[in-house]
Amino acid sequence: MSEARPPLRILCLAGFRQSERGFREKTGSLRKALRGRAELVLLPGPHPVPEPAPPAGPRPPQEEPRAWWFSEPGAAAFSALEEPAECRGLEAALGAVARAVADLGPLDGLLGFSQGAALAALVCALGQAGDPRFPPLRFVILVSGFIPRGPALAPPFQRAPLGLPSLHVVGDSDRIIPAPESLRLAGRFSGAVTLRHPGGHFIPAAAAQRQAYLQFLDQF
Fold first, then answer.
1. CATH architecture for segment(s) 8-217
2. pTM, 2 dp
3. Which one of 52, 114, 194, 211 has the lowest number of neighbouring Cβ atoms within 10 Å?
4. What pLDDT sits at residue 61?
């Protein structure tokens, strides 16, 4: 009888406007699907996204919408599909991930959703280029990902293809990050595995996707 493998530890980067509580709810089905095989460590972005306070008053910190960076000067806004005027807050985002990698490790891999997937891909690219903040990981899972736009972000993706094993989850009905955007990102990884589903902008975890996740993770 083979010995049970210890669970993998995966740092998960939330999407734009996702709070800690919201990201936990959105990953609930995935955490259940991977129970016993992977532990998901959730990390929302470092920057609050101002919104009108609800009638009951200010939200608790875990319910505040967060972001990794903004694409417009002076505005808490982000567009994944347009060239940004700037990438405001990006260095703080990279610093937050670097601290999480150092403090919450050892980690086996990264998982990112939407803006978090773009940031996870950037972390992989910087790590492959020798950035000491991001030591080698074993794999990355990118859900509704895209190549981040911006003059400072292009060079890491113009070098050699990224060699980290990767799983790219693509929603064929995703209207926020269209499938071609996610497939372009997959094309920057050598040997990328693509998991397509008929749904939209969410982290799928039905039976078919569960098997694909487990099959990918069984390599590690």
1. 3-Layer(aba) Sandwich (3.40)
2. 0.94
3. 52
4. 65
pLDDT (mean) for 189-199:
96
Mean pLDDT score across all residues of the chain: 92
Q: Could you confirm whether 197 is annotated as catalytic? A: no
| pLDDT at 137 exceeding the cut of 70 | yes
Which of the following is catalytic: 19, 114, 144, 182?
A: 114
pLDDT band at 185 (very low <50, low <70, confident <90, very high): very high
Which residue is catalytic, options 47, 174, 182, 197? Answer: 174
Sign of the Cα torsion 178, 140, 163, 96 reads positive
Residue 47 annotated in active site: no
